[in-house]
Design a protein that fits this description.
Structural class: mainly alpha
Largest sheet: none
Number of strands: 0
Number of helices: 4
Distance between the termini: 51 Å
Radius of gyration: 20 Å
Order of helices and strands: HHHH
Shape: elongated
Number of domains: 1
Length: about 80
């Protein structure tokens, strides 16, 4: 596996969504490539930081307005 290939599947690898053969190829590459290990650590740190951000709230009345507009759009 090349660094480019690992970068293309890094999210799936970090989330545990790769088939076993691909996970093993990633692990082999990560064992030999410090740059990709650092990249994966950075990805995980960013995901963790983003997960800590507060979710933006919906302004009062906006939900109802959006539902109303969607319903009008759906009816044509």
């Amino acid at each position: 596996m090349t660094c480019r290939e690992l970068a293309s599947v890094a999210t799936e690898y970090a989330e545990g969504n790769l088939p076993l053969p691909d996970r093993l190829r990633c692990r082999l590459h990560l064992g030999a490539c410090g740059d990709c290990r650092a990249y994966l650590r950075q990805m995980r740190a960013v995901a963790l930081a983003l997960g800590m951000l507060p979710r933006p709230g919906i302004p009062p009345g906006a939900r109802e307005e959006l539902l109303l507009r969607f319903e009008r759009w759906r009816r044509g």
